[in-house]
Amino acid sequence: MKTLTTLVAILFINISISQEININENSNINNPANQIINKYFEAIGGLKKINKISSLYKKFTAKIVDAANINLDGELKYKTPNLFYSNLSISQIGEIESLKYDGENCIIIRNHNNKKIVNKMEGEVLDKKKINFYPFPILALTKKNTLFTLLDAKNNLDTAYHKIQINNHKNDTTNLFFDKITFYLVKKEYIDNGKKEIIEYEDYKSINGIIFPFREKLTIEIDGNIVQKNINTYTEIIINQKFNKKEFQ
């Protein structure tokens, strides 16, 4: 059970990563990276539709690869500007973990051996994670004047993709990979010291004219060694569902 709890904790912290990207009005439109992001944004439905989204609900199933008979169900709730809720459950056990963020406080509740353990996420850990509590996190980054850099194709072994780098903090980097034909986001790499998280986005479908990936493959590496693989499949996505603020507190 201890091993399961560790695996679920890793999955839980990473499951909330979103994909949609926007461009701030003050962005440098001549920046090649921003031009690619604009094309991606057009490909998934356009700014006009995205800007009308005030909340997002996602229901998913998660399978931990090489962990026999461990399948999880979960929900994600986003409400603008940055309210967030998520939970994970196992059918035989029930809810095992939930996270709530009301824009100020972030609370994680874990159920372990019939005991409820409550922790508060804060400090540098929260600073790095809370960008993912936005329904469209990279939209929030653009409003913070984050620099997007297009890396030279000569340094990218896979020339089927445009590779854009984001320098988030002093010690971590995010790389985004866009398909050169569809301009969909197909992969994301997050590197923090010796830890690397790779998310591959697949099975894009339209919900109310907005294109979402319905399958994500997450690989976690530490010092070059793979420690976990997950396959997350979204079974339901609802745009502009009404949420009460108490659901995030």
Could you give a quick summary of the protein structure above?
The model is unreliable at 16-27 (pLDDT under 50).
What is the strand and helix layout of this fold?
Elements: H1 2-14, H2 32-43, H3 47-50, E1 55-64, E2 71-79, E3 83-90, E4 94-101, E5 106-112, E6 115-121, H4 123-129, H5 137-143, E7 148-150, E8 161-167, E9 172-179, E10 185-192, E11 195-207, E12 210-222, E13 225-239
Antiparallel strand pairs: 1-2, 1-13, 2-3, 3-4, 4-5, 5-6, 7-8, 8-9, 9-10, 10-11, 11-12, 12-13
Strand arrangement across the biggest beta sheet:
6-5-4-3-2-1-13-12-11-10-9-8-7
The succession of helices and strands, N to C, reads HHHEEEEEEHHEEEEEEE
Distance between the termini: 28 Å
Mind summarizing the main beta sheet? 13 strands, antiparallel
Separate helix tally: 5
Q: Taking all residues together, what is the mean pLDDT?
A: 85
CA radius of gyration:
18 Å
Number of separate structural domains: 1
Describe the structure in your own words.
With 249 residues, the protein is α+β, with helices and mostly antiparallel strands. It has one domain (2-248): outer membrane lipoprotein receptor (LolB), chain A (Clam), CATH 2.50.20.10. It is 17% helix and 47% strand. It has 5 helices and 13 strands. It has helices spanning 2-14, 32-43, 47-50, 123-129, 137-143; strands at 55-64, 71-79, 83-90, 94-101, 106-112, 115-121, 148-150, 161-167, 172-179, 185-192, 195-207, 210-222, 225-239. The chain has a 13-stranded antiparallel β-sheet. The longest helix is centred in the N-terminal third of the chain and has 13 residues, at 2-14. It is globular. 27% of the residues are buried. Residues 16-27 have low confidence and may be disordered.
